[in-house]
Amino acid sequence: MTDHFPWLTTLIALPAIAALLVPLIPDQNGKTLRWYALGVGFLDFALTVWTFWTHYDISSSALQLTEQYAWVPQLGLNWSVGVDGLSMPLIVLTGFVNTMAIFAAWNVTQKPKLFYGLMLLLYSAQLGVFAAQDMLLFFIIWELELVPVYLLISIWGGPQRFYAATKFILYTAFASIFILLAGLAMAFYGDTFSFDMATLAQKHYSLTFELLTYAAFLIAFGVKLPIFPFHTWLPDAHGEASAPVSMILAGVLLKMGGYGLMRMNIEMLPNAHVYLAPVLAVLGVVNIVYGALNAFSQQNLKRCLACSSISHMGFVLIGIAALTEVGFNGAVLQMISHGLIASALFFLAGVTYERTHTLIIAKMGGVAKAMPIVFALFTVGTMASLALPGMSGFVSELTIFLSVATSPVYSVAFKVLITLLAAVGLILTPVYLLSMLRRVFYGQSSLPEQAIAPWMDANPREVFIAVSMIVPIIAVGLYPKFVTQTYDVKTVAVAAEVQESITRVAQAKSLEAIAQQPLEPHQLQAQGVLSAYSPTFSSAGFSSAGLSSALIAPAIPR
Amino acid sequence: MNDILLQTGWWVPCYGLLGALLTLPWSMGLVKRTGPRPAAYFNMFMTLVAFIHGTLLFRATWHHEPVELVLHWLSIADLDLTLNVELSSATVGSMELVTGLSILAQLFALGYMEKDWALARFYALMGFFEAAISGLAISNSLFLTYAFLEMLTLSTYLLVGFWYAQPLVVTAARDAFLTKRVGDILLLMGVVTLSALAGSLDFPDLYDWTETAQLSPLVANLLGLALIAGPIGKCAQFPLHLWLDEAMEGPNPASILRNSVVVSAGAYVLIQLQPILNLAPVALMTLVGIGMITAVGESFVAIAQVDIKRAFSHSTSAYLGLVFIAVGMQWTNFALLLLFAHAIAKSLLFMSVGSIVLTTNSQDLTEYGGLWSRMPVTTSAFVVGSLSLVGLLPLGCFWAFERGLDIFWYDQPLLSAIILLVNGLSVISLTRIFRLVFLGPPQPKTRRSPEVPWTMAVPMVSLIIVTLLSPLLMHNLGLLPNWEYINKSAGITLIASGLMGLIIGGTLELQKSKSRSIKKPIRVVQDMLSYDFYIDRLYGFTIVFLVSSLSRFMVWFDRYIVDGAVNAVGFASVFGGESLKYSASGQSQFYVLTILIGVSVLGLLLTWTLW
User: Fold this and answer.
1) What is the ipTM of this complex?
2) What is the residue extent of each domain of chain B?
């Protein structure tokens, strides 16, 4: 099936195979093991970069480096992997964050073999999720990835680890059933049967079917991203996990939700996306404001950062909902940028925790005196998180704002509402981040005078990790093309597809409107899919016939 | 040669940034053996290079048409964000002012911060600060301007929070950031709107767009209001003015720049936005209104301060209020003149304040006295700065005020009165401070107070000379009117208002030991002024309270409603299972009974229709 060397399979399998060898390594206290794990992690990351550098063509939006092997032919399950502009940057991010997380987990003394083994397994699973091109395979790896996370939280977590781990597994496992459901439904739809994602995307589904599958995927990925009512597992899981696991959770696992939304919901079900995009925009704004307000009152440093993740992932939703090239581009960039920023912040929170032995903000205070370098790095991370120009968060959030403002689909009133509320979130971000920074670092030292010693500050390993996170953040902030060009072609292609759907939906709607001319407007409104949120849209021109042709008109000439 | 100079013009802001980066080994503590001094020298050297490059550039741009340098920074589909820089004699001139003042402030800091262990970090921040302001001066794109404004916000935050272990600094840094951030985000909304409306964010394109723009009044006014929000925060104007007062907790050399060029940067942006603001009459009205409130209110507040730095910071807000009025009335050259004169005079005053604070280790006005004979250079700096700040003698601000009065004399008596009032109140405030600090008997903290070292004296003296020469400079740049066009009556009224202030300030009753008056009515007024009309408490009761209670409510909601619903489901299933387990008793009679009941109910249901 494949005529080139199976690069992706190698990349995915390498950490997992290395994990299998872990029990054979003679090591009790984890000193050799950590070098082994770090070596494997770095090797895989380096190999990833090298593979994409030499074998990946950024000027093509097609799937590349594809491989396909029949795995369980009876079920139609194939080992089918491939990368395109959506998955390639995220795979690189995964390699980077995981390597850094292993390096951050330098002082694991409790069951080191199990710990590093699970970390490597988790590494493989994440790569697999982003590379899988077979729906069933995607589901299997998606489920597989939950197991190591569950164990990592429940064995090495904080005092409430069992509660957090159980909650995490219940939420995500329950939600991922919907992937299977929707995947099976799509596979059996029509006369052909296939799990191949490209084939599934080619099928023509009825609108009702699309909307239903869309909703199923939305639940599954909404839990992961997370989207508002399904987010409560996240502060617990992120708060209780140890710092390296939090880094992976915030840095990569949340991105799976966003990736899933783009891969399944937009690419495969563009018609439903056109209908439901406004819902996503509203949910995104809710996420932003709700997450920010929640973060402000958190007593626990890591819970505060976790709520901030909820807030920032809301921007991904808004970018996806904008239905334009700029929006999709911003959404991908926001995922990458947040992956770097969040993992840097969680790492630094872990560094602080190792010194103060508490995560309760009220018990810290004035620790900047004892650890000025950690303070400086934390400040940089905070500034990146609150979208300061020159940092990656600014570029992505600005792009998303611009995409909403220039989106041809929405009415002015809706755009103004979304932009203003998102801006409120942007004002709240420094409110909680700076108040966190102030309560933890500024002021009189809460540590006893004799406890302040030079060794309390970050050691070179920690500085190295933090700096290697911060350098790409600033690099992207100063010259975003350096990242956006790697996936630009793909997002443009996705957007073109969506634009086509918009035109299609608009034409269908205008025909329908002509056919149903004699009906009263309120009857039409009741039939419209958008009736649920018509109050918001009444001024948007939705009032006459769901998505009226007047609203869509500007999009048609494109 | 000229071409090379012009093409490399964008390097000038980079020098400051480079200097900041060069200090990293020292500020990170990697190099300890040499002490932090080399970091300071690096920075000063880079600033000097920036200044020299700027001077050459200024000569190259003189009588040369403006040069535009463009970098396509981010282009996605039809969105094209450019970094655009314009080099004209005006922009390069402003940049020169910035780098020049920066050199003086840095030299001054060498003396002022001598004993500080974090000298390297301070210089890194100063370099960053300078880079942001000088970049702002030559920026030709609203997007780039916004980015620089945010850089300024950051550097203000870091500089104010420099002594992060001090209790007051903690809130001051946060407030400075948050206040400016609120303004910045509103400005960003304006920027986003403009980009959607005009399709480009470069100033020339925006100006072209304004000529043909067809906006509904509502959109235009909202846009205008969003755009002025950024400068309101940056210039410490009425609703967003509290931060500047608190920011005085930061090191003094940074305050020199903050009170002169940073606040001017905000006004500079406002002036650049003027053509767009002209579309929005409400925004212009708001500018005038805010300017009037701030100018009058802050002039009064300044008189009641007991902290020497805070007294001056309030006067900065007041002067910027006048600039806002000028921009709101669309008199750009009055605004620029006032900005220029104010920047130079204020930085000189802040240098002299820095010397006083360093020598006496006190910022409390009631603890000073008798310094005139002990610190002659500082005293002369103070006197020259003060005279240049007010309309009494024909120094810098006199000409600016004169210009303003000339403009408003016939049509806008109210605005003329405000200018005269601000002038008079400033004279009162300055006279009061002068009497408290320099005259009277020496007190314990001022008894042994030698003149400052040369590192501080040299910049002070140079700035005295510049300040004295500033009218000449203005004349050479063609900013001053010819003698025959001067509105004589306005000039005389201005001087009269100054003299009036001098008399009142000179006869004002001063209480040194007890700064608060013992007479109740006076005390109430005094307290109200010294606490800035209690606006901070008002904010505490309203917006701060609202946000924090909303946030607490959200956490409660999250925990007990959103999470509670899920937990309730979990509890229900556990409870169901637990209760069902008692049904498995093991007695066959019970199972038979259950089956019997089940079958009967089923039978009933199935045959329901037959009955």
Assistant:
1) 0.85
2) 1-140, 518-559
